[in-house]
Amino acid sequence: MTCSAPALDRVLFELGPLTVYWYGVIIAAGAFLGLWLATRETDRLGLNKDLFVDLIVFAIPAAIISARIYYVAFEWDRYAGGPWWDVFAIWEGGIAIHGALIGAILTAVIFARVRNVSFWQLADIAAPSLILGQAIGRWGNFMNQEAHGGPVSQTAYDNFIQYLPDFINNQMCIGGVLYHPTFLYESVWNLLGLILLLILRRFNPRRGEVFLSYVIWYSIGRYFIEGMRTDSLYIVGQLRTAQVISIVLVLLSIVLIIYRRYSGKADRYYNGKKV
Questions:
Q1: Closest to 210 measured CA to CA, from 266, 275, 133, 127
Q2: Contact (CB, 8 A) for 129 and 30
Q3: Phi-psi bin for 7: left (phi > 0), alpha (psi -120 to 50), beta?
Q4: C-alpha to C-alpha distance for 47 and 148, rounded to whole angstroms
Q5: What is the pLDDT along the chain (275 residues), one digit of tens a residue?
Q6: Closest by alpha carbon to 221, among 274, 268, 184?
Q7: What are the CA-CA distances from residue 214 to residues 81, 133, 243 (Å)?
Q8: Cα dist. 62→96, 189, 273 in Å?
């Protein structure tokens, strides 16, 4: 469907040689709100309030670096012919959430061993923060006019898209074509996931099940939303990387929940210090 609308400015403000982009500010806001949520839970469980502050100091840089490495690795043809410093231009967008999760999880595993705390307990506390950060972070993609879906059909516009706020549809008008705001679909899906995780942990589940439920919920949504996007990373041919990884993560998470429940390796969420 054709359209005509001015794009929002990606730059929040400029101060001399310093340019601050909306993308970076939104990502940072998601990280800080996620940290706030995690520290509230550590306090409720009677843990050291500084535990997640210490973890986040290491986890955020590791997540950003691994997210960028992951993205560049699958988009290498895009960077191979250009200046070498383009691979570091993260403010222009181009990070992958699965890469970020790999970096964050590896950091948390090492941190848990060094601090002699349960990795699964840390993961359960962090899960709502992760999905909240992802819900907020998708609005950074919105400001960059990226991570959108395919062109909107007239039927989709008449039945749904026309009822979205004008500022969303205007920003999704790119090159005279109106695209599906898949960033919005994923953000809403993640907010619903946040509510479900907060409810789930009130029922005192087994250790690790809040985190694994997060993985399952996010992966199911990502699988379907990824199929709508036009900027997917591909493993081979038309095989979308995020969809393959989403299927693997759902199956692996289900297996882990069953294994940990029936092997006696998982204590309750609030009870005990060992997994």
A1: 127
A2: no
A3: beta
A4: 40
A5: 899 888 999 999 988 889 899 988 998 999 899 999 999 999 888 888 788 889 988 998 898 888 888 777 766 666 666 665 566 666 555 667 888 889 999 999 999 999 998 899 999 999 999 999 999 999 999 999 988 999 999 999 999 999 999 999 999 999 999 999 999 999 999 999 999 999 999 888 889 999 999 999 999 999 999 999 988 778 767 789 889 999 999 999 999 999 998 887 677 766 544 43
A6: 184
A7: 38, 13, 16
A8: 13, 25, 26
Name the token pair of 71.
């993205």
